[in-house]
Specification:
The chain folds into two domains: 285 residues, Aldehyde Dehydrogenase, Chain A, domain 1 (3-Layer(aba) Sandwich); 183 residues, 3-Layer(aba) Sandwich (Aldehyde Dehydrogenase, Chain A, domain 2). It has 19 helices and 24 strands. The protein has a seven-stranded mixed sheet, with helices on both faces. The longest helix is centred in the first third of the chain and has 18 residues. 54% of the residues are buried. Bound molecules: nicotinamide-adenine-dinucleotide. The site of nicotinamide-adenine-dinucleotide has 26 residues, from helix 10 and helix 11.
């Protein structure tokens, strides 16, 4: 990026455009500044393939500068009373409400999801801020008098310094909010690295953070990809890393950051199974399963993928799903009539098409092929695909699809369904459709995944609960948001005190 005198003032503008293309900036120490990276990646609107921004691939130098700012800010921020720290979050909540439609539109433009889905994405983000506003209560420690005669003990939760988060493309507003509001409300300072494929929503969020009166350096934004991630993971002055993304990168971040002695929570990919029993409310099951598998074009870590139909439920369920799939309107998410937007890129579309082909090659039946019909749309679209006769050894039954594909499989018994889903390498979520309480209890008790839906298709825990899976879907032990985030972002310090009576005073 050229640096001449004329552009110096423009550097302060977070959304400077040249020929309608946003040049993405970093936000470090309370200032919008140019990245030191000389390379950038194109940010494309996936609904029409238009180039909308250039995201710089930041360098180690950008991370170093952000850490210096965050470390300096930490000195006074940690001494700011928690009740004052959360006032900024209260103000931010009001600003987010005011600008929520604007944020949702930016999200749809860069990610492709429908406006309704983007509104939900923003809403979930705002709820994180609301929950973090309760930090004066969440942060309270414990104490006990007379742990031994005349000796008292107290445990307080104190911040640790600078934390960082690395986030994925699929929830541009929400996922960053899983982390930083909790971290800074605890008294830490923060660096966010959003996905280089969707940098624009966070630019707008950071403008609002600035407007809310956040002191400089408390939260910093560094755009980029691998070099930024690896620099964050190895930086000696960063206390911990939160990551969300695909399993191979989650594992890499977990191992690298842990090898540098950091706290790490790394959320990875998923393969989510949904079990339908004969006693389920069939209309609800069909509607909910379809929405789970195809909502956000299938690009949710909680998206349903393989539907295990127990016994005679198969035929009826399959008919219902095909009807729903045929009715789906695919197109630009800004159009209110549309219910499925595009996938993020041509590369993603090619990968999903390849997985569909692998199922056909391995003997499954493609009942509805969403690949062909979407080809005449000018965007990275896929219509919903319905595949039947899937078995557990097929690639499509094992790998994360991240596209609007519904795989149907017939199993003879409920136990067989549970055995199959527990054999997956992933453990994010699982859902059951039934009207039986005892079946629901058995399911919750026996399945491996950590987020369970009973007649629910996307069982995403709310901001005041904690979120995260198990197995290859989660590396670490302390989960995200809710009370768990307070544990992740603080150290518990225990003081044991004995005061000897001074007879000269009383
Ligand atoms: P991704 O792994 O490609 O990217 C995630 C982040 O990692 C980005 O910020 C990216 O810049 C960085 N990154 C990518 N490759 C890297 C590398 N080689 N070295 C260092 N950093 C790298 O993931 P994505 O495609 O953006 O997101 C989709 C994935 O995220 C899916 O697998 C989905 O299941 C997962 N996800 C999981 C959850 C969850 O809660 N478990 C939530 C949302 C998304």
């Amino acid at each position: 990026m050229p640096k001449n005198q004329n552009e110096k003032t423009a550097i302060m503008n977070p959304r400077e455009k040249i020929k309608n293309i946003v040049l993405v900036r970093n936000y470090i120490n309370g200032k919008w500044i140019e990245s030191s990276g000389t390379e950038s990646i194109d940010v494309i609107n996936p609904a029409n393939k238009e180039l909308i921004a250039k995201c710089p691939l930041g360098r180690k130098e950008d991370v170093d500068n952000a850490v210096i700012a965050a470390k300096e800010a930490y000195k006074s921020w940690r001494q700011t009373p928690v009740i004052d720290r959360v006032q900024i979050l209260f103000r931010l909540k009001t600003l987010l409400e005011k600008h929520s439609e604007d944020l949702a539109k930016i999200c749809t433009q860069e990610n492709g999801k429908t406006l309704i889905e983007s509104r939900g994405d923003v809403r979930r983000g705002i709820q994180m801020v609301e929950t973090a506003c309760g930090m004066p209560t969440l942060l309270m420690g414990k104490s006990l008098e007379d742990i031994a005669s005349g000796i008292d003990s107290q445990a307080i939760k104190r911040p640790l310094g600078v934390f960082a988060a690395i986030t994925p493309f699929n929830f541009p507003p929400m996922v960053p909010f899983w982390f930083w509001p909790f971290a800074i409300a605890c008294g830490n300072t923060f660096i966010l690295k959003p996905s280089e494929r969707v940098p624009l929503t966070q630019i707008r969020v950071f403008e609002l953070i600035e407007e809310a009166g956040m002191p400089k350096g408390v939260i910093n934004l560094v755009n980029g990809s691998k070099e930024v991630v690896n620099s964050l993971c190895s930086h000696p002055d960063i206390a911990g890393i939160s990551f969300v993304g695909s399993t191979p990168v989650a594992k890499h971040v977990y191992q690298t950051a842990a090898s540098y002695g950091k706290r790490v929570q790394a959320l990875g990919g998923a393969k989510n199974f949904m079990v339908v029993l004969l006693d389920a409310n069939m209309d609800l099951a069909v509607k909910t399963v379809f929405e789970s598998c195809t909502g956000c074009a299938g690009q949710r870590c909680l998206a349903g993928s393989v539907i295990l139909c127990v016994g005679d439920v198969y035929t009826k369920f399959q008919e219902g799903i095909i009807k729903k799939a045929k009715e789906a309107v695919v197109g630009d998410g800004l159009d209110p009539a549309v219910n499925i937007g595009p996938v993020i890129s041509e590369e993603a579309r090619t990968r999903v098409k390849g997985l569909i082909q692998s199922a056909a090659d391995e003997g499954a039946k493609i009942l509805l092929d969403g690949r062909k019909e979407a080809d005449n749309l000018n965007g990275y679209f896929l219509r919903p695909t319905v595949i039947s006769e899937v078995n557990k050894n097929m690639r499509i039954a094992k790998e994360e699809i991240f596209g609007p594909v519904i795989c149907l499989a017939k199993v003879e018994t409920f136990d067989e369904a549970i055995g199959w889903l527990n054999s997956s390498e992933y453990g994010n979520t699982a859902s059951l459709f039934t009207s039986s309480g005892s079946a629901a209890r058995k399911f919750s008790y026996e399945v491996d995944p950590s987020m369970i839906g009973i007649n629910i298709g996307v069982p995403a825990p709310m901001s005041f609960f904690s979120f995260g899976g198990t197995k290859a879907s989660f590396f670490g032990d302390v989960k995200v948001h809710g009370q768990a985030s307070v544990d992740f972002y603080t150290d518990t310090k225990v003081t044991i005190a004995r005061w000897i009576k001074d007879s000269s005073i009383w």
